Amino acid sequence: MLDYRFIKDNLQAVKENIQNRNMEADADLVVQLYDQRTALTTKLQGLQQKRNANAAAMKQKLDDATRKQYIEEGKKLKDDIAETEKELGETEAKLDEAGRKIPNMCNPAVPVGKLDTENLEVKKVGTPRKFEFKPKDHVQLGESLGIIDFDRGTKVSGQKFYYLKNEAVFLEQALIMYALNTLRKHGFTPFITPDVARQEILQGIGFNPRGNESNVYCIEDEGTCLVATAEITLGGYHSGEILDKASLPLYYCGLSHCFRREAGAAGHFSKGLYRVHQFDKVEMFVYCTPEQSDEIHEKLRLIEEEIFSGLGLPFRVVDTCTGDLGAPAYRKWDLEAWMPGRSDEKHPDGDYGEVTSTSNCTDYQARRLNVKFRDDDGKNKYVHMLNGTAIAVGRAMLAILENYQNADGSVTVPPVLVPLCGFDKISPKSK
Questions:
Q1: Active site residue 152
Q2: Which residues contact 51 (CB under 8 A, 6 or more apart)?
Q3: Which residue is catalytic, options 167, 231, 256, 275?
Q4: Which of 354, 367, 368, 402 is catalytic?
Q5: pLDDT at 84
Q6: Nearest CA among 236, 253, 240 for reference residue 198
Q7: Contact of 332 with 304, CB cutoff 8 Å
Q8: What is the pLDDT of residues 306-343, one digit of tens each?
């Protein structure tokens, strides 16, 4: 969350940022509640001082009338303190609720826009393949190759679940190892993270665990949720801690299952592996000082580019516009791989689809999770937190299947994955 004093001192800029992000939040209410909390805190401190003075006076030798007067005053002070504490607690709860709705400020370079179609393309890598035959989409390929079973996934678990089988099992593991080996080379500490996190950790990261529009699965009566990304568990790893500045930046990467309700998600391009309720992902997460975060954000994006360049997949990089940013993000880069199966009248040969993103969340999450470092001046300051997808296996597999398909219905495995999965081609299965 943003610092309340910052919101008060920069109210107009905060309100403009909310509008640019196309979000609903009441910055005026935050300032009102902040001022109210400040006044109540001052009032409470004054009452407590009077109570202490009253108690000290009671220890003196007093006549009965004076003692009775102090006793009555003490009772009144006790009642006033209890009432003020109650009012302060209610105000703090309202302030916390309103404050959490205020999004992070945006980098001034972020393009202003409401929809993902207004994201700014900044780079293209590779050239989309021109097929000499009509390419299939990954759903058709998964069925003909005998490697993905959506129908039985739906029968057993519901819509947007699936089975991977045969070569797809090894292809998934190869993608995971490829990403982990790349990150190991860059000095990341690897984790396999829990699939469950407390609701307060999700809220700290910026996920809403409640409501119809929530994207997470909550575990009833447990106060916990299934994680939607290892960003949640890696971000909560140091919650409530003061980190050694000399240890920063901390480069972590986490392998986890990811569970998402995908509330409201629909459309032709959400089919198959592109938008599912469960998938595996390798996530990057960094704790650093404020001075380091912009440079590290660029580094994370370049690592994502390295991973997808190594896979031989055409992609583009976009600077995400204000309306397409999540609330915690100060700036976000998306990598969109070329997907031939995304063909329609407007894009007959296919189109780009998001496969990774990386966000600089500055100190927005750290304030919620109370993660600090002790600076050279001896003061404790909030760290900056960054995250980025190394590989979201489902979408990477989708792009590989569609881009590496052959006229005979087979799919060639990207050379970088062959030593990891043990084969160089997936052929159709006879029925």
A1: no
A2: 74, 77, 78, 81
A3: 275
A4: 354
A5: 96
A6: 236
A7: no
A8: 999 999 999 999 999 999 999 999 999 999 999 999 98
